[in-house]
Amino acid sequence: MKVTKVFFNKFKKGNMLGFASVTLADGEDEITITGIRLMQGPKGMFIGFPSNEYVDKESGEKKYKDICFPTTGETRGKIQNAIVSKYKNVNGNSNEDVPKKGPRKSHEPIDMDNDDPEDLPF
Prior knowledge:
By secondary structure, this protein is of the alpha+beta class.
């Protein structure tokens, strides 16, 4: 699967940098995902996929459930790298921190201090 198109809309509010849409292709098959958030965290930029808010019946707490998400760390890395690259192109700023992490479970926290080239998704 390849990222073939990336659109980015700047929307600076708090730690949010903006929203992206990506088109993924595999041969002639394509799918577009919209509403991907690009965020600035203490250890670098990261992406958040579209989600729905709900209230947990047991605890009464507000929670979020992703609508869609990559099933492999490699795919998440490809999407994140494409969005960060587009952000830098649109923003004209290449001094932002970009997390470096290889394949991982899609909901696992990102270890941004891992510089092992064999763990990179490309």
